[in-house]
Queue: 3 jobs
Job 1
Amino acid sequence: MKQELRTTLRVAGGGRIVIPAEVRERLGMEVGADLVMTVEDDRATLMNAKAARRRARQRVREYVAPGVSLSEELLADRKKEAGRE
């Protein structure tokens, strides 16, 4: 079962926020780590970039048949278009 962690952050000068150590540890954040922030209505969500990429790949897999390479299909489509010009 996933444990929820809720904390309050304060916005400092220049719009900076300090992310507590426990949160950084859970997200696998180190100094210089890239984060992805999603803002939806009045809510902001942070996740580490590696996790964001993993989730994006999982979502794509839901719609793409096993064994299909989207990059190969795109290249084939581009070649067809180039042949028509």
Job 2
Amino acid sequence: MAPSQLSLARRIWPLFVALAAILVGSFVGWHYFFTTKAADAALDPKTTASKGGGSGPIPVTVARAQKADFPVYLNGLGTVQPYYTVTVRSRVDGQIIKVAFKQGRMVKEGDILVEIDPRPYQAALDQVLAKKAQDEANLKYAKLNLDRYLGLAKKDIAPQQQVDTQQATVDQLTAQIEGDQAAIENAQTQLSYTTIKAPLSGRAGFRLVDPGNIVHASDQNGIVTIVQLQPISVVFTAPEENVPQINKALEQGTAVPVEALSSDGLRTLAEGRLARVNNEVDQASGTIRMKATFENKDNVLWPGLSVSTRLLVDTLKDVTVIPDNAVQRGPNGLYAFVVSDDSKVAVQAIKVGQSNDGESVVEQGLTPGQRVVVAGQYRLMIGSVVQPTEAPPLSASGKEAENSPPKAP
């Protein structure tokens, strides 16, 4: 390094060190002021009070523990199925000359659906009718001859053998006429099959055969499918461990209510009753299949629709019930914040049994009439003073009762 450069470096270096010391000192002072002073301010009750951090009652929403009957539901998933499903097929061979139903529309039992060309079957009926008339005429003549032979036999003019032969002829023609009558009834039945009628009331699907086509009694596809919608069924499942509870509900002799809800469980579609329970548990899924029946007067349930189900299996009498929002979970189990008459908060350990529709049954820890906090718990401590606002009471279904005061914000 040249002597001039070395001399310049010696003069600049003290200035650089001094500048660095000033910067470090400034940072240390700033950090002390904005952290230590802020912490001191946070610990100062006067400062905290001036900022609203700890003084004054804490606003909370409370509800009273109630003594009520609590319904026990089993929730599940189900599929709507028709009460009856019929695939309409032809029972005779022939050409379709008329389709009388409208696709996708309701039909009533006995309504004409399809007409098949009846002429071959009408001709067969006329033939057996003529055959019966012929045999009846022969029988009439044979009876006249029998009467003559009987009269002659009494006078010993005609032999008894001739009388017996004529009697056999009369009996043969009588049996033949009975056979003719059977043939007539069969021909009439075949002719009636050319007019296909709805076997039940329901909704018709898309037709599978058009007018002009030839149908056969052996066809497997059918002509149209009709499903009965009123009543209608819902097939759903429940866990296998609930089978004794379900059987107990059925043994009580009263109808076991079932609700069908939308797939998201937010809207009740229909109310029905449990019709039957399957005779075995599905080992693959560990569930039992059940079928419920619904009147479905408004046709809100449709075959193939997926629904949520609620099966009422029991009703707990006179139990203590609180809103689910009051139940808190801690390291030692469940608890609730209880508000005393002087608006102070205490923590009460509780034991919860059944829970449903936003309500829980408290088996231990609370008594009816006690106030529990349902909103605003995050700011509470033991002994906190609160400003309680009563929440609207809950109905038996867990929804706010009508004409209740609005919940405090």
Job 3
Amino acid sequence: MPSPYSSDGTRADARAIATNLGTDFREIPIAEAMEAYTELLADSFAGTEPDIAEENVQARIRGNVVMALSNKFGWLVLATGNKSELSVGYATLYGDMAGGFALLKDVFKGWVYRLVRWRNEQEGRELIPASVLERPPSAELRYEQRDQDSLPPYDVLDAILAGYVEEDLDAVELVRRGLPAEDVERVIRMVDRAEYKRRQAPPGIKISTKAFGRDRRLPITNRFEGRAESHQRRLRALR
């Protein structure tokens, strides 16, 4: 479902993966749908600069497309968000979170890469092209977008999330592990604020000691941020 921001490399990799896996491949461009939404929202968005609202429209167009195909043909839609993205809210409601099953819901981004490399090794060839692993991660919702524009590097992010989400460590304990205090504080705040999104995610496989859902739930009412404020006070004291 390419947009004007989709790179040639991404489009070529999608075709290659479908060919290597022997799956049906359909390319449904969304540029016309994006233009229709731009016109539809022009009066309401007048006087504002393009931002995350326009970016998320693209993800939701794609969500509508795959759900339409699901309704028509009875296919199961797999939501694409992984545990790193779902942890910090870097997944779009009714967009890439749309689907009936979230296969990667409990798999951190770094582990997704490890699993791809392992699968290629088992096959003895590149089922998933190396370019997918080597390209800087990007949702490609605007020109030159990179995940690191909004998030810490994934090795840092995953280390913080593993400690905070799965080991229930607080900010001070994470910083004592050598993780950057500023990133720790920001990620904890993002995790707590994204709880309402995770409550709306499809079910998925549990592979860790603590998955989102029954294993870990936070209040989503009354602007709950008590834990984040406590972490901030302890970090200030540590400094």
